[in-house]
Write a structure and sequence with these properties.
This protein is of the alpha+beta class and about 110 residues long. The chain has one domain. The protein is built from 3 helices and 7 strands, in the order H-E-E-E-E-E-H-E-E-H. The strands form 2 sheets. Strands 5-4-3-2-6 form a 5-stranded antiparallel beta sheet. The chain has a two-stranded antiparallel sheet with strand order 1-7.
Length: about 110
């Protein structure tokens, strides 16, 4: 599955100037279908499409940068890669962060 569509890429790049500001939207959700990790994309560097910024739910919930190419190359159990949640719709980052911290499913 293609992780980044043109629509997601445009939305993420348009928010790049906002940095880590939680007053922007999460524009995409990626997840490990065989694990518990999820990546919520807030923005993408226009001059470096590999650089994504967002919220990561792994061992902890935190904001940070992550690499698109690493997510695309990853193969976990059964050889499955990272997937994009095709039913995810953009949502305010602040709301997503609070839900994850409270242990709610997003």
């Amino acid at each position: 599955m293609k992780l980044m569509t043109k629509q997601i890429e445009n939305a993420a790049r348009n928010q790049y100037h906002m940095g880590s500001d939680l007053n922007q939207n999460v524009v995409a959700k990626f997840f490990d279908p065989c694990g518990s990790w999820s990546w919520f994309v807030m923005n993408q560097a226009p001059d470096d499409p590999d650089y994504l910024w967002g919220i990561v739910k792994g061992f902890e919930v935190e904001q940070g940068s992550f690499s698109l190419s690493e997510l695309q190359k990853y193969r976990g159990r059964f050889g499955l890669g990272i997937e994009r949640d095709i039913s995810f719709r953009p949502q305010p980052a602040r709301e997503i962060l609070h839900m994850l911290i409270e242990g709610k499913h997003v």
